[in-house]
Write a structure and sequence with these properties.
α3 packs across α7, α4 runs antiparallel to α5 and α5 packs antiparallel against α8. A hairpin with a 3-residue loop joins β1 and β2. It is globular, with a radius of gyration of 22 Å. It is mainly alpha-helical. It is built from eight helices and two strands. It starts with about 50 loop residues before the first helix and ends with a helix. It has a domain of about 180 residues.
Amino acid sequence: MSQDPRTDYPGYGGPGQRPPQYNPYPQPGGPQGDYNYGPQGDGSQTLEEPGSLKDDLLRLPKVYWRVLTRPGTQTLTQEATRGQWDLVWIQLLIYAIVTGVIYYINLLLSGGLASLNTQGTGTISLPSTARHVLEMAASLAIIAFIPLAFFIWQSVVLICARMFGGQGHFVQQSHAFLLFWVPLGIISGLLGLILSFLDTVPFLIIAAIFACYQLVLGFFALKAVHRLNTGRAIGAILAPSFILLFFAACALGALGALGSLAYGG
């Protein structure tokens, strides 16, 4: 009886050693054998098996640096096969916690939530205890929101990739995106903290550059994980972006309409 490589594993490693990752990429010569696996397109690229969780975590900084400084399909193809849920969740939680801490520091440096504006009574000054509670609650809300937003976004991206013929798995896609989401998100958060004392124009320029670079890296990630050609990968990464912009525009329009009704406009 044949074994399923995704569920039936031979003996492996010692304590803390995870099972070998199922390789989602068929070998050259199959239905999509023209995919460029290596520099010569001959299947020479080696797809690394994941080691222990500790080893994968220790090598993440080098992987982040390589993905950001040498972006491309080959780099992300090598790393995508190492993606497993424990590694995905740890990266995501670290990113969420660091972002929440940066947001809390930004609140403290900017004076925090010293008052609330209400329509009926105007501005209400908050006691020190209430202010600190609200600031902590806002930071914790950011930490809880980031994983939720990430998986919703990845689900939309996966659906769009499938529509364009993608064959990859959700966990590999999530891992590939986190390899640039985490470092770029932390760097942009720290830059936002520094630039919050300056004019908003430099901050907006840097935010636009980061957003464009994330789109480029997302293109490479989808091309690697889902084995898409260039045209299909472009469509798969742009489609969810347009969907996000559409819903954002609808939300802003709805908020504007509610504001006009509330203030009698």
